[in-house]
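User: Hey, my collaborator sent me this sequence without any context and asked if I could get a structure. I don't really work with proteins. Can you help?
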Amino acid sequence: MPPSTIPILTTERLVLRPFTQSDLAALAPLHAEESFWWYPLRRGMTTDETAGFLERVIARYDEDGFGLEAVIERSTGDLIGWAGLAVPHFLPEVLPSVEVGWRLAPSARGRGLATEAGAAAVRYGFTDGGLSRIVSIYEPENVASGRVMERLGFTYWRTTTGPRGEEVVVTELTRERWQEGRG
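Assistant: No problem. I've predicted the 3D structure and written it out in structure-token form, which is a compact way to encode the shape of the chain:
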């Protein structure tokens, strides 16, 4: 059963916390960056699209019991992206499931922060979140995300078609395999 509240997760360099409507001003410039949404949109988001995204994410906290969280860099206090657990409603064929995902600002990439955020979300999912399995989804061309999934212990489950007709790879990690990897 999903948790009733969205947690605040703290790592060495990051804080993952639930989004609020007041995050729109910091999130909109990140979402406008083309590379932030290259997979799957191939473009940035408008401020209105980002506002809609934020509303959906916040609504999912209560509806699903899981949701993406703002990623704050501890050293600066800046919102540098988002990460966390969410139900992948966009890919009904893999439901029921919970996905771990992340998107970071260009300046935050290549520093291991996606792996750090993803690991915190996975740890929460398998402990307090009570999950027995987590999935992660990426387009094959998004090699960097695929590598993060590998570092987190995810393995190939299936290839399918995403909502925009794109090929997507679905990876999975079970609680048992996660626990073995920690030993």
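In plain terms: Strands lie at 9-10, 14-18, 68-73, 79-86, 99-104, 133-138, 155-161, 167-174. You can pass these tokens on to your collaborator as they are.
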